[in-house]
Amino acid sequence: MERFFRGVLRHRKLVITLFVILTCLSVACIPQVKIDANMSDYLPTSAKSSQDLNDMKEIYGNDITNARVYVTGISQVDAASFDEQLKNQPGVTSVTWLGDEVDLDKPIEVANADTVKEWYDGEGYLYQCVFTSDVDQAEIDSIRSMAQALPDAQTVAIDGSAVSDAANMATINTDMAKIMTIAVIVVFVMVLLNTTSYLHPVVMLLTIGVAIALNMGTNIFRGTISSITQLVASVLQLAVSMDYSIVLLTNFGRYREKTDDQFEAMVMAMTKSFPVILSSAAVTFFGFLSLAAMQFLIGADMGIALAKGIVCSFFSITLFMPCILYNMRNAVEKTSHKPFFKSFNRMAKVCRAGAVPALIIAIVLAVPALKASGAVSFTYGSAANIAQDSQVKIDGDIINKAFGESQTWAIMVPEGNWAEENALVDELKALPTTKSVLSYSTIAGSALPHELADESQVKQLLNSGWSRIVLTSNIPDESKGAFDLVTTVRNICQEHYGDNYKLAGNAVSYADIKSVTTTDNTTVKMASILAIGAVLLVMFKSISIPIILVSAIEVSIWINEAVPYFTGDTINFVAFLVIDAVQLGAAVDYAIIFTEEYLARRKRMNKKDAAFQSVEKTAQPIITSSSILILACIGITVAVSSPMIQQVGELIARGAFISVVEIFFVLPLLFQLLDGFVRHTSYKIGFYQEGKGSSGAAGSSGAGSLPDSPTTTPAA
């Protein structure tokens, strides 16, 4: 590896040129990557709601109602005119309003009052629409402007899942800019405080910036990524990858103290840092990749993007960063400054004094935290990701106040068995949550041959041997009542048609998401633990060390995940799933840095001194990296508009803090208490034994040990 890195540094111009070319190509590809905000699109193909929705789209050529438009103050004539205008708008597939339900050539007073009140509340008219899946905020704003231009129009409100998705997409660029600005500022300040040159933060940000561009650009080969992945992947890549660059900078600084030859110092730093960075990257890579074990395909979407980002960061930091840093060596020297933090001896003493209480607290909290983390309430739909002060949320409250909560499902059953279909329709009408049921028999009557019925109605209700029933219920998309209703409707359909029926709707998809992710939570935990444990097993050639590290970090994850349960908060399920892989991956990086140092020192001194000195020596890189993650995520929580991203930021910030506390307070004590277990379950560990001299010859000194470690005199 030393010969390889020497060659890389000698041909640094070629390496830099190659990275610049790849970065430019990647930046050009970024705008071509499609973003999808609809979580239902990521249901596994085996999910019944996914299959049913695809079949329904294929047969009927449109989706079910996914938007509502409410306009007050306008006359009936203008309302009819707006219906026609709305149908001709880009992004609108179909529109249903009062004129489709009653004969407006007759006085409205003689029409069925129950039907009228579903579409007209005395002040305004409601339009139920089907928007295309790719409708954007500009098209929705155009509809709003068109409604506001109607004579005497007063209130215009637009809501629905399609509107929520469009709003989420519209905020992505704004939120991305905020997220990256906060992250860059935090990285710059924290790296500046913990390094010895004003240019070090610039070099690190440039390196990670290249890695992020490479990762985002290569998403073009995947075609489409989720809006969640788009928002969180870059900042997580930035925060997690900082560990690797900090390791390189720290080792370079140490070797610079030993030689004036910066070329040799950089080669030795690259060689020394490589196994540590490789190990940390491998652990984080498999931690992120474990998300792909989810049945819910958002896991694979995020896991692949995050794991790919780690690969990009690994090569950027091990190859590109040393070349840039060496090329800027004179400027770095001229902008050097004294370290702001010279010693962490006091912190190490605090950690040693608080180790026993911290371990007791962790043991006491472990089981209750594990149980509480499994009882947290979740949200699943796009509406839950809308800020309370957003326009679509305000509009939704206005429409719900006028007409009540509403959602529309579609049921497909085989055509022709009218007695069975009428019985099904009657049962659906009898449900306490039902607002209306629309079917061929309710419009034309089952006795009327469909050849004689209105063609436009027949086309949307009878097609390809299927009969479609449209059920509208006065219940919100995401609630226990909605999920219970999905079960009830499915049971009713099965009673009449067995499995030969299809059911589609937002709450139906959310119910399947809930069902899938309930098992996914356990799957992701086990996959990430096994993957990371396997890497640690190979890395340390030890059975006990992976168990100790993963156990300590898992307890910190349980404590973090239990907080929403005790505070009574409802968490987006994606945020909750992500934290397992992210916190475990990030915390293991810190644990590896500490463990490498501890093992190197344990070869030359007793366990207590090794633990104490390891805390002091690894405090700077661990605190630098974790503080970047914590502060950046706190800033994101405050700045972005998406509640889901706020929850991700809060969970990661709190999780990183708890993990660092565990590593500095609990992990050193665990290594001391389990010293014999580690010695007897590790291959050639070579621990120092008092009274027998150092046994450090057995086994290596540890890839992550400080450059001065091999020459340190064993403790008495």
From TrEMBL:
Residue span, Membrane transport protein MMPL domain: 133-326, 487-674
Subcellular location: Cell membrane
A Pfam family matched in the record: MMPL
Ranges annotated as spanning the membrane: 176-195, 202-225, 231-253, 274-298, 304-328, 349-370, 523-540, 573-600, 621-645, 651-674
GO CC, any one term: plasma membrane
Cell membrane found in the keyword field: yes
Membrane topology per record: Multi-pass membrane protein
Main localisation: membrane
Keywords annotated in UniProt: Cell membrane, Membrane, Transmembrane, Transmembrane helix
Protein name: Membrane transport protein MMPL domain-containing protein
